[in-house]
Design goal:
Chain A: Keywords: Phosphopantetheine, Phosphoprotein. Chain A: InterPro entries: ACP-like_sf (IPR036736), PP-bd_ACP (IPR009081), Ppantetheine_attach_site (IPR006162). Chain A: This is Acyl carrier protein. The complex is a heterotrimer of chains A (about 90), B (about 400) and C (about 350). Chain B has about 400 residues and is an alpha/beta fold. Chain B is built from eleven helices and 14 strands. Helix content of chain B is about 30%, strand content about 20%. In chain B, helix 9 links the parallel strand 9 and strand 10. Chain C is of the alpha/beta class and about 350 residues long. Chain C is globular. Classes of the chains: A mainly alpha (about 90), B alpha/beta (about 400), C alpha/beta (about 350). The interface between A and B is small, with 9 and 7 residues.
């Protein structure tokens, strides 16, 4: 449980950094808030950036960008996917 | 109907041949130029590309350049293609002969080679420092053919070459120039290969334009140029074809992706028809942009459906022959359109097996003999840039 | 009859402020940055977050020009940029080399293409009209202006065109100019540029946008009479070339009231300007501006901006004056620029 909490916090930090969300703090992102569309408002370019982040930080390689939408639904879904698939 | 602008020469180099005749033979025999990179020094050896199998050294030798020349690869390819066009048209080069070239990355092949040297302050190759300017590549070609008057470069990503052709035609029509050489050039670079790879739109197989199972494009390289001349300058010279219409619009939808309904593409085609003063029913064939990305081909198909309704003319994408040659694509495909007009043949959309579920459209998949009077050619690019050109037979 | 083309809106982002033109800012570096406006006034935060300075300057500058003319959607957007989005190009290139072509993030590639600025302006405005980017060294903005003039002349449907030039500095690629002699070998004070007798120049960045229109209004700054671009000119022929251009525009050299020159303190190429200063335009006010804003591919936007203000106000800021001649009247201004002896351009404006 604590491990999951740490991963969620870590993800928020790296998303803010990788996507240049300058005016945001980790506390501004809810764990279950949608990252795309009406929630945080990320777009398809951000999705590609997050794919790079998955590979760089967790050794997970996604080959089909279409697959990513579900994984990047929210911080929760991202963290779950990473826990199940990480190689580093 | 307007008379259009006369084309008196054309030249081309691509992965399927280093002149018009060899390009035609490859198109006619359905011979693709897609291979794996040999001359491009990249770690991505698994990505198929439309590479021209000549080193910079041998290209420079065939142009008789001195050892210490500062031609980028795009300038080498461009000079070869322009030379063929000039040989054919025997156009007069003087103060009223212009040159407009499209290039997306220009000389970034030189910049990526020497970047680390330059950051360390080494000056041995400093003649390439300005190569990052697209205009640098254009100027090398202009120097090579002795043009000192109006020289300009258009850089609108993958529609650059088509826009250069459009601008040239407009300048002739407006009486700003009597003669102008127009087209585009781009070479394979690590910069673009990795760029498209980071966008996850490169296929590891031969590209499948307009196919249900398409999964990305193959990058290519090439150059092609046309010579345009004002009618009063022709003096009975043979005319290869005419630029009848052109349309340039912006999709204004997304930085890289096309809108799902292809609005920008639709508007560009519509504008081209308007300038040509013909109805959509006059178009006999469309050389589509058809890059084989999920997004482009669907968006372009939708635009065709909106414009042509149930009677979409024969269409094909020639990207599976050459790869997507970025800024050169519109120019290469202008040459292919002119060959089609002259031979009265449509060249096939290679590798196609299954129509897209969303549209059910079927491109031409074998060489087809047909009466061709008007051909529409599409080029779309990053930044929402959409350009359509209409070519016609001289007597049409 | 050929319709007339007017400049109805102008805007400038440069290393100088537009308010204090008689007290210019002094820099003691050969590379100095443009002063940034508050970009948040023009661009939404979610869009702003990944934009480089060129894109931010381009959008902000274009919006100022559009606002000035109350234009929501221009009939065309035409951009000139010598080196485009150099910061993103450099970032992607460095990552590519340092990471051996692995794990590259796409954003900097997407934004590296030269048409990014024009595309982003279209996206920001929701403008689906004609959109082209020219990238021809120091004739990039001039190419865009030539196209803009054509757009307005070839059809009566188009009423207003947004046209401008943008270039930005980047950490490394700009520095490379010190290696091939484009920059002066030691740092100078920009305001001392005319005292220099040495090769190279000083550089900066900026964005200048204009609204060209066939309709004159109360805010019109100038009439855009004509433009000419020539890739190379032999130094001794510059006077003759200028005369050919003036003849084509039905005016002679004696009727030019001031000439705005692109002199940049590079003693290898400033003879082009000196030839004109000592001959054709010996007796009229000669003006320079690159000591204020440096030299870069689209810097002639600052010249055009300044000329528009001079024609509208009827007054020449003393900081621009290269000689002591005073004009009888201020009706016609000629702008001449080249860089390294290439990409020569002439722009003729007249008062409205």
């Amino acid at each position: 449980m604590l491990k999951m909490k740490n991963l969620q916090a870590e993800l928020k930090e790296s998303i803010i950094e990788q996507l240049n969300l300058e005016d945001m703090k980790p506390g501004d992102i809810e764990n279950d808030e949608p990252l795309f569309g009406d929630g945080l408002g990320l777009d398809s370019i951000d999705a590609l950036e997050l794919i790079v982040l998955l590979e760089k930080d967790y050794g997970i390689k996604l080959t089909d960008p279409a697959q990513s939408r579900e994984i990047f639904g929210s911080i929760n879904s991202m963290a779950e996917f990473i826990e199940a698939n990480r190689t580093q | 109907m307007n008379k259009g602008v006369a084309i008196t020469g054309m030249g081309i180099i691509s992965a399927i041949g280093n002149n018009t005749e060899t390009n035609y033979r490859s198109l006619f025999s359905s011979k693709s130029g897609i291979s794996f990179p040999e001359f491009l020094k990249t770690t991505h050896k698994n990505l198929p590309v439309g590479e021209i199998k000549f080193s910079n050294k041998s290209l420079a030798e065939s142009l008789n350049l001195p050892q210490d020349h500062s031609f980028t690869r795009a300038a080498l390819l461009g000079s070869l293609a322009v030379s063929e066009a000039l040989d054919q048209s025997k156009v007069k080069i003087d103060a009223e002969t212009g040159f407009i070239s499209g290039t997306s990355v220009g000389g970034i092949d030189a910049t990526e080679n020497y970047f680390k040297e330059f950051t360390k302050g080494k000056t041995e190759n400093s003649r390439f420092i300005r190569a990052q300017h697209p205009g640098f590549t254009t100027e090398k070609i202009a120097e090579h053919i002795g043009i000192s008057g109006f020289v300009s470069t258009i850089s609108t990503a993958c529609s650059s070459g088509a826009n250069a052709i459009m601008m040239g035609a407009r300048m002739i029509k407006a009486g700003k120039l009597k003669r102008v050489i127009v087209g585009g050039t781009d070479c394979l670079t690590k910069f673009t290969l990795n760029g498209f790879n980071s966008l996850m739109i490169l296929s590891e197989k031969h590209c499948l334009s307009f196919d249900e199972n398409r999964n990305g494009l193959n990058l290519g390289e090439g150059a092609a140029y046309l010579v345009l001349e004002a009618d009063e300058e022709l003096n009975g010279k043979p005319v290869l074809g005419r630029i009848m219409g052109y349309g340039n619009t912006n999709d204004a939808f997304h930085q890289t992706a096309s809108s799902e309904n292809g609005e920008g593409a639709f508007l560009a085609m519509q504008e081209a028809l308007k300038i040509a003063e013909i109805g959509s029913e006059n178009i006999n064939y469309i050389n589509a942009h058809g890059t084989a990305t999920k997004n482009n081909d669907l968006s372009e198909s939708r635009a065709l459906q909106i414009l042509f309704g149930d009677t979409i003319p024969d269409f094909s994408s020639t990207k599976a022959f050459t790869g997507h040659t970025l800024a050169a694509a519109g120019a290469l495909e202008a040459v292919y359109s002119l060959i089609s007009l002259n031979k009265q043949q449509i060249f096939p959309n290679l590798n196609f097996s299954q129509s897209m579920s969303e549209t059910g459209l079927q491109p031409v998949t074998e060489v087809k003999e047909k009466k061709l009077d008007f051909i529409l050619s599409n080029s779309f690019g990053f930044g929402g840039n959409c350009t359509s050109l209409i070519f016609a037979k001289d007597e049409a | 009859m050929k319709p007339k083309v007017y400049i109805n809106g102008i805007s400038s982002i440069s290393a100088q402020t537009t308010e204090k033109e008689e007290n210019p800012i002094s820099y003691h570096k050969n590379i100095f940055p443009a002063l940034s406006p508050n970009y948040k006034e023009f661009i939404k935060p979610m869009a702003l977050r990944r934009m480089s300075k060129a894109i931010k300057m381009g959008i902000s500058s274009s919006k100022v020009a559009l606002n000035e003319t109350n234009t929501e959607i221009p009939d065309a957007i035409i951009t000139g940029t010598g080196e485009g989005c150099k910061q993103d190009t450099e970032r992607f290139l460095e990552n590519l080399i340092d990471q051996q072509e692995e794990l590259l993030s796409p954003t900097s590639f997407i934004q590296s293409t030269h048409n990014t600025i024009g595309g982003q302006i279209a996206l920001n405005l929701g403008c689906k009209n004609y959109n082209v980017t020219y990238s021809q060294n120091s004739a990039s903005l001039e190419s865009a202006l030539l196209d803009a003039e054509l757009q307005l002349l070839e059809t009566s449907v188009k009423k207003s065109v947004l046209v401008g030039g943008v270039d930005e500095l980047s950490e490394n690629i700009t520095q490379f100019r010190a290696l091939d002699g484009q920059l002066k070998s030691v740092d100078i004070h920009n305001l001392d540029l005319w005292k220099e007798d040495s090769p190279g120049t000083i550089t900066s960045e900026g964005a200048h946008f204009f609204i060209l229109s066939t309709e004159k209004n109360n805010n019109s700054y100038a009439e855009f009479k004509g433009i000419s671009i020539k890739n190379s000119i032999q130094p001794e022929k510059i006077n003759a070339e200028v005369e050919i251009f003036l003849n084509k525009n039905n005016i002679n050299a004696a009727a030019i009231d001031a000439v705005l020159l692109g002199s940049n303190g590079d003693n290898r190429y400033d003879h082009y300007y000196k030839n004109l200063q000592q001959s054709l335009f010996k007796d009229i006010p000669q003006l320079g501006y690159k000591h204020l804003v440096g030299d870069y591919d689209t810097v002639s936007g600052f010249a055009l901006y300044s000329a528009c203000k001079i024609l509208k106000s009827g007054r020449i800021p003393s900081v621009l004056k290269l000689n002591t001649s005073t004009p009888k009247e201020l009706k016609s201004i000629l702008i001449y620029n080249q860089y390294l002896g290439r990409d020569h351009s002439l722009i003729l404006l007249s008062a409205v």
